[in-house]
Amino acid sequence: xxxxxxxxDGRLAENIVYFARALREAGLxxxxxxxxxxxxxxxxxxxxxxxxxxxxxxxxxxKRHEHSVLFEQAFSSFWRKxxxxxxxxxxxxxxxxxxxxxxxxxxxxxxxxxxxxxxxxAREEKDKEEVVELDARFSVSERELLREKDFAQMSAAxxxxxxxxxxxxxxxxxxxxxxxxxxxNGRIIxxxxxxxxxxxxxGHFVDIRFRTPAEKHPPIVALCDISGSMxxxxxxxxxxxxxxxxxxxxxxAFVFATRLTNISRALRAKDPDEALDQCTKLVKDWDGGTxxxxxxxxxxxxxxxxxxxxxxxxxxxxxxxERKVDDGLDHEMDRLQRSSRxxxxxxxxxxxxxxxxxxxxxxxxxxxxxxxxxxxxLRSMADLVHALGREMDARTDxxxxxxxxxxxx
Amino acid sequence: MTPIPxxxxxxxxxxxxxxxxxxxxxxxxxxxLFLALRMKRPLFLEGEAGVGKTEIAKVLASTxxxxxxxxxxxxxxDISSAVYxxxxxxxxxxxxxxxxxxxxxxxxxxxxxxxxxxxxxRPILQALTPTGRGAPVLLIDELDRTDEAFEAYLLEVLSDxxxxxxxxxxxxxxxxxxVLITSNRTREIHDALKRRCLYHWVDYPNAERxxxxxRRKVPGVGKRLSxxxxxxxxxxxxxxxxxxxxxxxxxxxxxxxxxLDAVALDPALVSDTLGVxxxxxxxxxxxxxxxxxxxxxxxxTAAAHAAE
Lengths: 409, 308
Fold this sequence. Notes:
Chain A is of the alpha/beta class and 409 residues long. Chain A has helices at 8-26, 32-45, 50-61, 67-78, 82-92, 99-104, 106-118, 120-138, 156-168, 191-200, 231-246, 264-267, 272-282, 292-307, 327-339, 360-365, 378-388, 398-408, and strands at 176-189, 210-216, 220-225, 251-256, 260-262, 313-317, 342-346, 371-373. In chain A, the strands form two sheets. Chain A has a six-stranded mixed β-sheet with strand order 5-4-3-6-7-8, sandwiched between helices. Chain A has a two-stranded antiparallel ribbon with strand order 1-2.
């Protein structure tokens, strides 16, 4: 290289670019704009300690609380070499104390920087491994099957047919009235538009304009059971949710078997196969056992306040066959119903003519849902879409099922 | 007029500035705040209720001696209550007067009626208007309560610090306001908006910092009692609760206990006053009685170990 004294900014910028790449690998959405921000921030902050440097980059690169942990791991492994870190700080320091010192051994410094850059791919891999290890430690149940399953196992013809049909499904037309006002035939006079229209005709006559409350589609929150007995249905249902969110509807999707996973982000991929592929990667307990009460408790505590705020409809897709039923299930279902505008339970077991609400889990959950529907084929899916747009009807009233079960007993 | 205090020059300066106004901030918050002030970027603060997000804006406005303009978000918030509104009544009177005086020229009347004279400025437009006291602090509080449409509108305001009024043109701030946005995370804010901001998650403070906050905000609490309170609250946050108590609840509880002339915590006292700390019936039922005693014993043992 021909440069005499390497521009400190250049090195720093380069390293931040590489660091950003490492973050992207680790799964943080870091765009080129944030890299520029990062460089600007480090220059502005004139860092004095490792801590300040950490929080400076954290301020720019981390946009979600969940990403903090990933960032921390990436940061500590990327900037592991203390010497590199100190070098950076020295370069950025506004007071150039040890200028002579720096001149004495510029080779060593740039060598170290070069080393760090060379070794970067290996480090990235390590990051990934660490993340996986961390996940593995969280696994709770011994029944849980930690395996990555391919969606391709479903017959191709079936998938194609289902997808085509789902794409043709009309969106649920349910809407909730908001407090926002828009132009329309309401009862509130819109003075601004009235005046503008009067201006247009020179004020000879005044045509009064009105405003009306806006309506919008409430978000859909789906809690989908993916335990062994449910896997086939939930897969199709994820296709359905993908189709719905494609059409601009806000969808928050969660899957659970032994633990709850949020897959809303993954579902946002344009291509349904890609979206489901990403889901499979996220979910570690595919086809495992079921712990409904535990998963609903996690949803209530960790997510309900974040996703149920806007009058959401909750779709709970499970067969309700909980192994161990105690008070917890009853309690958590109660809480879930209280915090959602409408709770619909979709149960594939309803496809059997002779189905009766006998199982303990079903008995515990049924009193707390607003609607109880079948979900086993495309037809019932279409029914669901229509039903969301209407008031509840007697056929899906959970109390009817309970009464039938007690009569039979 | 006194000169406007300068913006902090370093992270240490920022820590000093905040602590001067009795806001005990960690190094992390000071760093991100300093960067936001320096880079003139909005600061997006997320965190549980009652950890002091809104307080930051108030402290910033008072220490920097700038006007605080607060926009409390709610469902249905629209441009006419957040940005600007035409004073239609006054406009109509103006038209009537022009008619009476007989010189009704359409174009001049139009430009006169839609002039700044008839514009009611709401918080966001106010924040873009020069104040003579430096850029104001604009607090957009609880953004998660409003809807996506308003969030999308904010994009223009936050990236270019300008507002477009169809009848009047574009109004641009000569000096960008200091923008702080808070969210309780009852809804995910869109990435496009977050991208324009610096992000910070305001966490519960550690025991040491919480003790310092308590000492400054409720000075009348005895040393032993405040240590007990903080240790207990820190312990209760580690329990699996529906809603863990925030700093605001800690301060309320300390005030309540001083009102009751308590000198130290005991299980009965904790059970009786738990409603100040926890706001969900499930949580209270879980923590009352023997659970409170267990936690308190744990706290005591830990304190005894630390003292040894």
